[in-house]
Write a structure and sequence with these properties.
It is built from 21 helices and two strands. It has a two-stranded parallel sheet. By secondary structure, it is mainly α. Helix content is about 70%, strand content about 0%.
Length: about 500
C-alpha cells in the first residue's frame, strides 16, 4: 500500500502541466463559490454606514484618507497610522459605487478577492519555478487549504482591507526570502542587490502601514534575513537586512512626524497615536496560545485542539530532525529551532496583546474571519518551509503528506457551510445579516421613503454623531449617499 501511494504521488508530481491548469481552475472555482456565498448572505456591516458616506463624499482625497472618522474616531484624539489600508478601503468603496451605477449592485470587497487571485497565481508561479516537483504539488494543496479556510473564504464582504493587505505583504516577503535562498552562490549584480533592497523596503513599508499586525509580523520576519546574513554568512541577504532597517526607520518617522502632519491637513486637528489599555497576565498568554491553536485548527481541516498542539510540537520536531541530518556548523546548529520557537512565542504574545486591545477576537464568529487572515498566512508560509525541509530529508514522506493534506481539504470544504452558519449567526446576525438586499432595493427605488424601504432593518448600534444627518436604521446613510451619487435622490427626510 505504501509503495502504491508513493508511485501514485510520483506519477502525479511528473504531470506538471496538468497540475498547473487544474490548480488554476480549482482556485478560481473556490473564489467564485466564496463570491456566491458572501453575496447570498447579504451581510452589511453596520460600520459601513460611516465608511461609505465618508469615502463617497465630496471631500478631497487627502481629507478622506487622513481623517479619524476612518477609524470610527470622529472627535477623538488618536490615529492608527494604517493609511495604506484606508486608501484601499476608498478603492473598494469606489468600486462598489461604480458597480451600482452599472446596475451590478453588491457589497463585496474587490481588494479581498483580487488579493486572493494574486496569492493563488503567484503561489503557483513561485512554487513551479523555485520548488521541486513534489513540493509544487504539496504547495498547491496547502494553497487550497488556505483558500478553503474560514477567513479567506468568508471575509469577502465589504468592510476593511487592512488584514488581507497584511496577508499579501507577509506572502510576498516569504517568497522574496525563498528566492534569495535559491540565489545563494550565484553571481548577483549590483542591480540585483538594489532590486532586492527596494522590494524589501516597499513590501515592509506597505505591510507596516496597512495595519498594526503588519508592523508586528514584519518585525518577526526581520529575524530571518538577519540570521541568514549574520550566522550563515549569506551575503546576498544584506540588501534585505538594509531594506528592513530603512523601512523601519521610515515607518517610525512617518508615524511620529509625517502622519500627524497629514492628519492636521486632512482633518484640521492634531492627533496622537492610539494608546491601548490592558494588563498582561498568564491568563491572557494562555488565551493567546489557545487562539493560535484555533487558527492552526482552522487551517488544517478542524483537526481539534489536541491535533493543533501535536502539529505545533511536530513543527519543532521537524526542525530538530532537519538540523540533525544537515551538515550545519555545530555552533549554529540550534538556530533554526530557536527561530521557530521564538516565532511561536512571539505570535502567542502578539495574539495576547490583540485580545487585550480587542476582546471580541475571542467571539466564535469573529475568530473565523478578518483578523484571522494574517496568522493563517503565516501558517501557510511556515507550512511550505517545514514540509519542504521534511521531504528533503525523507523523500518517501511526500505521498503521505499529500494524502493527509487532501483529507484536510475535504474536511475544510465540508465545514465551510458550518463556518458560514457560525459567522452569520454571530454578532452581525441582528445587525447586518440580509441587510444588503434591503439597501440595494432602497437605492434603486428612490420614490419609496428610506424609513419605509428599510423598515425591516434594525436600529444602528453606532453613536448618532458618527451617522449624522441620518442613521436611525442600519443602511440609512449608505442608501442616502448612493441615491445622491447615482442621481436618484428622492429629497425625502429619513
Amino acid at each position: 500500500m505504501k509503495k502504491l501511494f508513493i508511485s501514485i504521488f510520483d506519477y502525479i508530481s511528473e504531470q506538471q502541466k496538468i497540475i498547473l491548469y487544474l490548480s488554476i481552475i480549482l482556485c478560481a472555482l473556490i473564489i467564485l463559490v466564496s463570491v456566491y456565498v458572501n453575496y447570498n448572505n447579504g451581510t452589511f456591516h453596520y460600520e459601513n454606514d460611516v465608511y461609505i458616506p465618508h469615502f463617497l463624499s465630496d471631500k478631497p482625497l487627502l481629507m478622506k484618507i487622513f481623517n479619524p472618522i476612518t477609524e470610527l474616531a470622529n472627535g477623538k484624539n488618536f490615529f492608527r497610522a494604517r493609511e495604506v489600508g484606508t486608501f484601499f478601503n476608498y478603492v473598494d468603496t469606489s468600486f462598489i459605487f461604480y458597480c451600482f451605477r452599472l446596475g451590478i449592485p453588491h457589497f463585496l470587497s474587490m481588494v479581498h478577492y483580487l488579493s486572493l487571485i494574486i496569492i493563488s497565481l503567484m503561489t503557483i508561479f513561485f512554487a513551479k519555478k523555485y520548488l521541486t516537483k513534489k513540493m509544487f504539488v504539496i504547495t498547491i494543496l496547502l494553497l487550497i487549504l488556505f483558500l478553503t479556510s474560514p477567513a479567506p473564504f468568508l471575509t469577502g464582504l465589504y468592510y476593511r482591507t487592512s488584514k488581507i493587505l497584511t496577508s499579501l505583504g507577509i506572502f510576498f516577503m516569504f517568497w522574496l526570502i525563498t528566492i534569495k535562498k535559491h540565489s545563494f552562490g550565484k553571481n548577483e549584480s549590483r542591480y540585483s542587490h538594489l532590486t532586492s533592497f527596494l522590494l524589501t523596503f516597499f513590501i515592509v513599508t506597505f505591510t507596516c502601514l496597512a495595519d498594526e499586525q503588519g508592523l508586528a509580523y514584519m518585525i518577526l520576519a526581520f529575524i530571518i534575513p538577519l540570521v541568514y546574513f549574520k550566522f550563515y554568512e549569506r551575503k546576498n541577504f544584506l540588501p534585505l537586512v538594509w531594506g528592513f532597517l530603512f523601512s523601519f526607520i521610515f515607518v517610525y518617522l512617518y508615524r511620529k512626524i509625517l502622519d500627524p502632519f497629514l492628519y492636521l491637513i486632512g482633518s484640521g486637528t492634531n492627533h496622537a497615536q492610539i494608546q491601548y489599555a490592558g494588563t498582561l497576565s498568564f491568563q491572557n498568554f494562555k488565551q493567546g496560545f489557545f487562539l493560535l491553536s484555533e487558527y492552526v485548527q482552522q487551517f488544517f481541516g478542524n483537526i481539534g485542539m489536541i491535533g493543533a498542539f501535536i502539529l505545533i510540537g511536530f513543527s519543532i520536531f521537524i526542525m530538530f530532525h532537519y538540523i540533525s541530518k544537515k551538515n550545519i556548523n555545530q555552533k549554529y546548529k540550534l538556530i533554526p529551532v530557536s527561530v521557530l520557537i521564538i516565532g511561536i512565542v512571539y505570535i502567542v504574545f502578539l495574539l495576547n496583546l490583540m485580545t487585550i486591545a480587542h476582546p471580541p477576537l475571542l467571539w466564535a464568529d469573529v475568530k473565523i474571519v478578518y483578523y484571522t487572515l494574517p496568522p493563517l498566512m503565516v501558517i501557510f508560509c511556515t507550512s511550505i518551509y517545514l514540509i519542504q525541509k521534511l521531504i528533503e530529508q525523507n523523500p518517501g514522506l511526500g505521498s503521505l503528506t499529500a494524502f493527509f493534506l487532501l483529507l484536510m481539504i475535504v474536511s475544510n470544504s465540508v465545514l465551510l457551510n458550518n463556518n458560514n452558519r457560525i459567522f452569520y449567526s454571530g454578532h452581525l446576525h441582528n445587525k447586518g445579516f440580509k441587510i444588503a438586499p434591503l439597501i440595494i432595493f432602497a437605492v434603486y427605488h428612490p420614490d419609496i421613503p428610506l424609513a419605509q424601504a428599510l423598515k425591516s432593518s434594525p436600529a444602528s448600534p453606532l453613536p448618532q454623531e458618527l451617522l449624522s444627518p441620518v442613521g436611525q436604521k442600519i443602511g440609512g446613510p449608505t442608501t442616502l449617499i448612493l441615491r445622491q451619487r447615482i442621481g436618484k435622490n428622492d429629497n425625502k427626510n429619513y
